[in-house]
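Exercise (ungraded).
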Amino acid sequence: MPKTGRQPESAQPGELLSQLADEGETGTLYVDGVPGGTVHLIDGRVSYVESPAAPGVGTLFTASGRLAERTWRAAVEAGGADHRVGPLLVEQGHLMQSELELCVLAAIYDAAFFVLTPDAVPVRFAPGELHWLGRVVEVEVAALERETSRRRRVLDEILPELSVDHAPVTPVRRPPVQRVVLTAAQWELVVHADGRRTAADLSHLLGRPGYATLQELRRLSAAGLLRDTMEPDPPSSGGESSGEPSAVDIRSAEPPPAGGDKSSISTTAAIRRQGGPRRPRHAAPQPGSPDGAGSLPATPDDAFLDRVRAALKALR
Amino acid sequence: MADMDTALKEAMNIDGAVGVAIVDYSSGMALGIAGGGKDFDLNVAAAGNTDVVRAKMRTMEMLHLNEEIEDILITLDTQYHLIRPLTGRSSKGLFLYLALHKDRANLALARHHMRRIEADLEI
């Protein structure tokens, strides 16, 4: 990555973005952290945003069947160097201007939700660096910020808990109710949640916006139908629960997010969870779950289990 | 080759149009708006009407009505509100929202226009 611009600094991405917008800058803002991403500015307005947690326009168009994979790749090859892939697709008659605009707008707001975290993270601005998509739409930074915080609020209204946002998810083995009604979108998520895929994996796989995926996962989690893979199924008869540490215990020991600034608390927690014990949690086996065992590595990580047990004992 | 603003402006030319929005109904966000004003916030209307569409879809599922919604009409004292889910491959999950003055609008014509605008938004 070129280091032409300002040195990396730690800042709230939204704040820095507002400054860059006020100065009418053109270039790319790199945002580190989890999931992180890039914000692309043209004359102080946002022309595109990318994040690993949100499928880009290419995925959205090809997954919906609107564009053939081949068509998309050819356009990226032909127009990428000149930063005009979007306009090229319209000129060649593959897309209408309006549908391109709609899709790019949706992708911008979707990725912005993940990139514009309320936390300070390492950021770097590369002036003059353009995105290959080119100029399709322009969004004001303030509008992006407003919408992002509105989305955070809506998400927390569904379920103010982020266990399914970043971790691999899995459907529960026994639904907590007699009768389950799912929408088509929820069904697809349940079918593809194999205990290894995270929300981001699922949205890329299904070509669904990342935010819409989070919403559905939180709804399913609120209904008790889906859970963070490493969180054991609630014991059906209270049988084996005695010595086994459970993710639920750990979480409920955390203070619940307080009314005012929910979003920032949730995000810090998310980053902590993602960055910290993620790998060992992947490797840890599911105690006593023959159904789930197939999708998990067979070798138990004893050292990690011991650590969790010790931590839980200390909590008591 | 209509861009989105043109399509929206065209919608505002419909007799009696007060405001129009293209709304993403998973997030409740208006991707584009035209018209509206101080006493009629289209962004708020967009978010709220998302719940209307979702409720109607859920009801149809419960009734086992295996049909698509062409449009939803809400009649107020002085206004009509028309909601039209878009069906194109890349615009699935979006709906058009149009508010009309009741005494100046021709409902049949407005519905006809909405259909044309949808065609303008996608091939």
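Further reading is listed at the end of the chapter. For now, observe: The mean pLDDT of chain A is 79. Residues 87 and 220 of chain A are 39 Å apart (CA to CA).
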